[in-house]
Amino acid sequence: ERRSRVRNFSIIAHIDHGKSTLADRLIQSTGLITEREMQEQVLDNMDLERERGITIKLQTTRLIYKAKDGKEYILNLIDTPGHVDFNYEVSRSLAACEGAILVVDAAQGVEAQTLANVYLALEQNLEILPVINKIDLPSARPEEVKKEVEDVIGLDCSDAPMISAKEGLNIEDVLEDIVKNVPAPKGDNSDPLRALVFDSYYDTYKGVIADVRVMDGHIRKGTEIEMMATGKKFEVTEVGIFSPGMVPIDQLNAGDVGYVSASIKNVKDARVGDTITEAKNKADEALPGYKKVTPMVYCGIYPAEGEDYNNVRDALEKLQVNDAALAFEAETSVALGFGFRCGFLGLLHLEIIQERLEREFDLNIVTTAPSVIYKVAKTNGEFFEIQNPTNMPDPQEIEYMEEPIVEASIMTPTDYVGPVMELCQGRRAEFKNMEYLEETRVVMHYDIPLNEVIYDFFDALKSKTKGYASFDYELKGYKRSELVKLDILINKELVDAFSIIAHEDKAYERGRMITEKLKDVIPRHMFAVPIQASIGNKVIARETIRALRKDVLSKCYGGDISRKKKLLEKQKEGKKRMRQVGSVEVPQDAFLAVLKFE
Ligand code: GTP
Q: Which ranges carry the Tr-type G domain (predicted)?
């Protein structure tokens, strides 16, 4: 039977352990495309992903593999991202699979996200197949790493393929491993249809597309479908597979992974996590969605020019459709006018959305200082949450405040235990314990205020440990804390978009750093610009940007017109990304830049 020859799997790994490289190798070695045709990395196809070298959005592809048993197998590979901010995408793709390949770098060994991803796969009851990668590296220690995977994770590694994805070594072992050890999908073609939407997006040619895993029943062109969450009905216009790229086929059967396009006009109607059923023969119960995600970090996003407001809203709506973790609602700022309060999983997620708005939607936007969600108890008995520092009540009205705390695990070589402790102490972290993974590697557990994590903790950790430490965190709960609102005044005017909530003990230092940074990033004007940080009415730090004296053009003595032109053009370029705040021009990215400390 055909279904017994289908394998649905994902590849999971700590970032940079070689997941995308292996995916490309699998595609290539099953003959789907030749080396010459293969781009750098086939699956990571978003521009941004390529530049940053990380996977953000998941991609799916179907491989045909003729195994050693002589039979042809259909392998559906669903790509997953590796960064700590994108766990929710991982659980999304895992929900569509029966198995997961766990790639572990033979030089690095088990890292924080290796474990985190294993837990996600176990939650979905997947078969996990360890694969040791990068055995070509001189620093590779495959046998030790195998032992580490067995000891730390508890997976049997005796038959784990030892490969080099980069050199294409032993790739066939991985394919055979998948065929032998990933269970074939269950389900019955004649049952009522249930298909899990694990991704959806707008395609310029085909309109709204839902990527689905058919669990029960079948789906084909002409099927009248119903979305179980909303009850809306649509007629299927096309079904197909990813090969890679969309290839229409007649029918998707139970166990298959593919795409569905229907007369869906609004991407919102193909919600990720929803179950598609047949309108005339409905399933009794929807499929379990997967781990719900809630944003942890908020910031304001404003159009650089007010008339772009509607375009920003449209773009956010489009991005939200296949990014369940992105939240937004309208808000206004005195300094920036009409905009949106947006919620993200973390700082990287925020930066990615910001860049996508700029690149894919060609929008000029301003992003304000990120904030976590605080809880406020007022003296009058009210208790509420705030995600925008401007909504913090006057200190006299506050009984107490609470801030979110995360449980963090940091894996590091023992050499860097000192620097990691130093970093954590500077971030108000509370040490819990330390475990040895091997003689030279430990995992350290800390409780850290989320507010300290979002301000560049990850980058600071990497730089203090030469990139060797890895990090994972999970929300633990809320804790009382002495918090104050820190305001920034530019040219004596309070710029609400710069306000942050900080711990009392940190406010002075933050205020000083922000004013110093702003002094560097705000260009000189024809007049002197004072920059002040204050708590209430008390100024705690101050810098002044001196007035501009000379005409910039006087630098190019007389003659050289082309140089003058270039200079003017450069200025214009720079101008594009400025934002007028009162009488002062502030660079668009200043709002985020001031919060990068180390
Ligand atoms: P994300 O997509 O960001 O999660 O990372 P990834 O796990 O997909 O890692 P990727 O495949 O992009 O590989 C990371 C780096 O390791 C790249 O520079 C690869 O060229 C390199 N790499 C991957 N496999 C091997 C290997 O077998 N040997 C060596 N020496 N390098 C490898």
A: 4-186
380-385-388 Cα angle (round to 5): 115
From 203, 159, 246, 180, select the one nearest 5 (Cα to Cα): 180
CA–CA gap between residue 597 and residue 346 (Å, rounded): 17
Give the count of alpha carbons within 13 A of 581, CB side only: 31
The two three-digit tokens of residue 508, written as one number: 């002075």
pLDDT for 21-44, tens place per residue?
998 899 888 865 544 444 444 444
Question: How far apart are alpha carbons 250 and 253 in whole angstroms?
Answer: 10
457-464 and 417-426 helices, crossing angle to 10°:
150
One-letter amino acid at 306 equals G
Determine the residue of 16, 102, 470 to mutate for testing ligand 1's pocket, defined as the one with the most ligand atoms within 8 A of the Cβ atom. 16
Report strand pairing: 251-252 vs 374-378. Answer: unpaired
Could you tell me the CA-to-CA distances from 171 to 97, 163, 174 in Å, in that order? 21, 6, 5
Which of 20, 22, 117 to mutate to test ligand 1, by most ligand atoms within 8 A of the CB atom?
20
Q: How far is the CA of 131 from the centre of ligand 1 (A)?
A: 13
| Ligand 1 center from residue 16 Cα (angstroms) | 5
pLDDT digits (tens, 9 = 90+) for 259-286: 999 988 877 788 778 899 999 999 998 8
Residue 417 C-alpha from the chain's centroid: 28
CA-nearest residue, atom 10 of ligand 1: 18
